[in-house]
Design goal:
mainly alpha
Amino acid sequence: MTTAVPTATGPSTAGPRSTATRRLLALGRAEATLLLRNRTALFTALLLPLFLLLTLRGTLTQQAEGHPGLDVDSLLVYGSVGMMLGFVVYYNLTAAYVARRGELVLKRLRTGEARDIEIMLGTAVPSLVLALLMAAVIGIGGSVALHLAVPVNPLLMLAGLVLILATMIAMAALSSAFTKTVESAGITTLPAMLLIQLGSGLFVPLEVMPDRVADVCRLLPTTPAYQLIRVGWFGTDGSAAATGFAGSWGTAAPHLVTAAVWLGLAVWGAVRYFRWEPRR
């Protein structure tokens, strides 16, 4: 005599299907919890950029005395947003990659369903969200308070923002390969942070630099993407008179090409040198 095996007629008890979006959100939530518990990282992300705002305004005011045509208000908001992105994304993410590598989190994640790019981006999600929120607050609040004109070309601003964030993620991954501990991240990221602040025209506008120095700075890794944001916002990169929507594309074309080249090099370096576990 045989016994019939009952078949399941109710709803499936299997969990939700794993997708790239679900995995990214899960990794992002876990990383956000760790970021909120790290007071040093929060201080660097929130308070240090605000302190730099005060320094930046005084510096721009002094520079305007020797360059009467310098628009201090627009450069203040633009420079503040740019420096904030550097600290929140590049520095914090470098430290995060080093910390997760030392804790063997990255190595364990690679044994699961998540792909390498998902692990990298999932770790970056909290820094990106925080950076975008702060950029929106500073950009919109500063523009309203200082009565700045509306952006000339929002598409160029978006392109510049995407390029600078992608480049900083790749730079953070590359820098983490040469950073042994979280504590040493402040040292290994210092050269790039100086280039971001001084060479990208954030702390010292390119138009007040000597011509040869400015030409070199325009070719640095992060400068082209920042210049795209500036052209899209104000219609000029400081080298010529401001233009409208149509004219801004011509001004932005060289920056688009240079920014794309640097992004490709940064991604290549990150893929080539990034380490998923500590050296033995």
